[in-house]
Automatic annotation (TrEMBL):
Protein name in UniProt: DNA primase
BP terms from Gene Ontology: DNA replication, synthesis of primer
Subunit and partners: Monomer. Interacts with DnaB.
Domain Toprim: 275-368
Keyword Zinc in annotation: yes
InterPro entries the UniProt entry points to: DNA_primase_core_N_sf (IPR037068), DNA_primase_DnaB-bd (IPR019475), DNA_primase_DnaG (IPR006295), DNA_primase_Znf_CHC2 (IPR036977), DnaG_bac (IPR030846), DNAG_N (IPR013264), DnaG_primase (IPR050219), TOPRIM_DnaG_bac (IPR034151)
UniProtKB keywords: DNA replication, DNA-binding, DNA-directed RNA polymerase, Magnesium, Metal-binding, Nucleotidyltransferase, Primosome, Transcription, Transferase, Zinc, Zinc-finger
Amino acid sequence: MRTGGDKGERECMGFSAETIERVRRASDLVEVAGAVVQLKRVGTNFRGLSPFKKEKTPSFYVHPDKQFFKCFSTGSGGDVFRFLMMTEGLDFPAAVRRLAERAGVHLEEEAGGVGGGDGGSGAERERLRQIHASLALHWRDLLAKDSCAEGARAYLQEREIPLEWIARFGLGYTPAAWTATLDWGKANGFTEEEMIASGVALRAQSGRVYDRFRNRLMFPILDEGGRVIAFSGRVLAGAAPEEPKYVNSPETVIFKKGRVLFGFDRARRAMAEEGRAIVCEGQLDVLRAQAAGFLEAVAPLGTGFTEEHAKLIGRFAKQIVICLDADVAGDRAAGRLGGVLLEGGQGWGGVAKAELGVKVVRLPAGDDPDSLIRRGGAEAFREKLDAAVDFLDFYVDWQSKQEGDTPAGRRRVVEAVAKLLGMVESAVSRAGLVARAASRLGLGENLVMDEVEKARGSAAKIAVRSERLEPPGIQLAKPLEIHPVLKELFLLVLGQPGKFPEVERRVDELWLKNLGGEELYVKIRDSYRNDMWTGLGDLLPQLLPEEQDFLTGLEAGVWERSEEEDWDKALEGLGGRLEGDYLRREAERLSAKLRAMGAADPSAVEVLRQQGELLKRRARLTAGASKANA
């Protein structure tokens, strides 16, 4: 997971450096982290258990004066944006928005957004969010208090939905009248066109405008930032037989169905902890599962499961458990879902591996997760989850059932399975899966492998990444590899940031080449020259995650000398060591060049001269250092 690189990269996300800085300065990391971790003051800092991994001894520190955190158990560190991104699984724009809302900082919204919307001006998007937020509260109040919602309340009581979870999911009710919601909108300052643009109203061919949702139990759909961006309405008793079970909001500039999962805002933390996502078919299934303790449950919104959904889950979990209704339609949906997951391997990387990362729950006939949990409790559902079958086994059996036991049917089954396995890029994983499928089909491995290779040949343009996926949940940055002397230099810089001009005077940037931290040094230099840095807190928003980890680790044990001459002397010594190491590397490079050139090469004389100059310079440097230490 990337925090967002330099200033330019963050600006291209839709926020200027000034906006980001306003949000950062308005956000207290102690308060933000304290909402997730129980912090205790230790001296001038705060300490608690790591939010990134399970531990018994606290290793997580927050430094309030410099507004950064450091987790010694994982090596991670950074600013308030990075903390929110790691603990909540947000991307950078979503973290900025969440913190801005928390701190009351107004943002000029850019096009695009957390909910997967596209286009639209900032004002338009904000107006639609206002409609959704206000309407969610209005519908919730109707469900709780109004006599028109008696049928909806009776339905929830009959389905034994706990009041606590009705409140947690913000369930509401829409009246049966054709223009009840439209009339509410007009009374609250929203125009007809705005209500239509938000998706809660429709215009008939006759020109008449009416409500999209009528006499339905309403489920608010939230984005990653926790804001209402759409609705899903479930049919209630008394509806016409042709009425669909669920009606969802249409796509708008703030909502794209294929990029949002119902319940995801509450489920992502549990996904990271459990290492899996439970994909259900309906919203009530998700509510029931989460209320029973299976907080990792989510559901798609009418479009089926998409590659974007797979990528979304892949940020937190390494396995998906498909849990759909126990009927023909449910089996068909499960088959499609597994195929999408594998085809989406290009975006998710770890799906197409030895176990495919996909399992299928087989529910009793006539059951869905809601009814199973109501009848048998959480334990009955857990037993089914534990007994989930690997998707490959399910897929082979499902295809065999669909095609029938005829020569033509068996051929189609093998072709379908071969197409599926052909998407697995790793030859080792593919071979293991072929053996498993062949055994399931009762065929020879060579025969199945031949079909798989044919499928791969005909789909050569399908590229499925096979690299090993990082562990699910908290995504950790790869540690920086930096030369020990350069590491000491960074330590000095952090100890006395106001004296960076002295570092520039003593250290030639050429000396830092190939030491592993030259890019970080340049960022510090540019930040200082642009008057953007007086210490680590100002620098962190411009850094990559691995750079944040490195510098926060140094800052936690920063060199703080009270005597100026000690710092100056240390800088002089480090400068000499960096220069000496550079001269040694250059001399070795020239020696290698001479060996490759041969004595007859006319340019060898010039290389010899350069080498001689380097050796003299190095000798003077060594003599000066000896004299200074005498």
